[in-house]
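Supplementary Text 2. Reproducibility record for the structural model of the 455-residue chain.

All settings were left at their defaults, and a single model was retained for analysis rather than an ensemble. We include the record here because the model underlies the residue-level annotations in Supplementary Table 4.
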Amino acid sequence: MTPRLPDLMRCFQGIIPTALATCSADGIPNVTYISQLHYVGPAQLAISCQFFNKTKRNLEDNPYASVEFWDPVTFRAYRAGLRYVRSEHSGPLFETMAHRIEVIGSHTGMAGVFKLRSADVCDVLWVEEVEGFLDESADLPEEPIADGPMTEFRALSLVSARVNRAHDLESLYRDVLDALEEVFRFRHSIVFLADEKAGTLVAIASHGYGESGIGAEVRMGEGLVGYVAAKRVPVRLSGMDQLLRYGRAVRARVEVAGDASGLTAEIPLPGLPDAESQLALPLVLEDRLLGVLAIESRNPLACAEWHEAFLSVLANQIAIGIDRLSEADEEPAPSEPCPTPAPPQGPSRAFVYFRNDDCIFVDGEYLIRNVPAKILWKLLNEHVKTGRREFTNRELRLDTSLGLPAVKDNLESRLILLKKRLEERCFGVRIVPVRRGRFALEIPGAVALEEREKG
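Retained model, structure tokens:
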């Protein structure tokens, strides 16, 4: 039976490189490997054009070509005959293919160098399975269990219920990431909070990692997470190891050619060092970027095409939930300071605030920076001067020295970040909720505060 392109979607995930054969007008063949063979429709495929000048010239002079590609699960091989139709330099198809390539360029320090020149659309003239490529007597891998409508409906119901029932942002982040594993078997996920003023994204919640990594920062535009935040589009990558090796090989050739001036330091992948598939989705409400949801797996086929489309719907619900739980609390600040607490019983802590970098070190080790650092410094000074332990969200919002945005300040998320960093890096010092809009700063020992410029 003749294979159909819609039944071969796994072959177009980029997990195994595709071989492309072209021929010049005078009959000289050329074979190369391409980074993307993109499914356009039942009778069309698109080739990514980046550096292949000879391939491009051949297609323009002689529009016929053939490709060989493989199913990464069954390892069956297929060939297809192509006829070059046109090159697209903009539009939805070009943008979809460009996102994938530009993310790899960002990861390997080649932003602006490793990029898509054109999406070359080809009609598919014929498709065939390569006979004799596999030993048919050998056992083939079992087909993976298909995810169907029941998984989608269950996921929508489960995540919607958890978003709606969350009583605060911390439970929202935790329950949503738990649900991604329960329904989709995504065991590794991170929520990044956007700080557009600082131009960074900060890890605010994670699931499945040995160390939480809370507080880790990614700059806007860098790597997969930064790219998705800057473009505000979801990006799905499969076969990460092959893609990165390809990108690094191109980088090495650029460096050898003496054209390394446009290269930057490689951005390390967040989370799993051996991730084979990644999916990042922007958390956007109206025109505001709230953050990014990042999912990754060691399974190169963990993130299918339907995951990208369906999880974009869930990302919108998560963004709505974050916005709902970030509304300003109108509870008034206390009219007088709390009574002076009993003498401290625990170990003393030395906090240093660096004014020119807005960061705090505790006992000589980095703790936190930016707005959460300013908040902690305010709390510590109030505690040392007056003995206060309880504070309200409202008084923080009214303090202009903290630099919070006038509208939708994400204060609750910043407090969650501060709370978790204290738990990880400053044992014994805690931020404890008292009631809605009010929390207590618990310090079991003496506190020494110092403010200086960072050298």
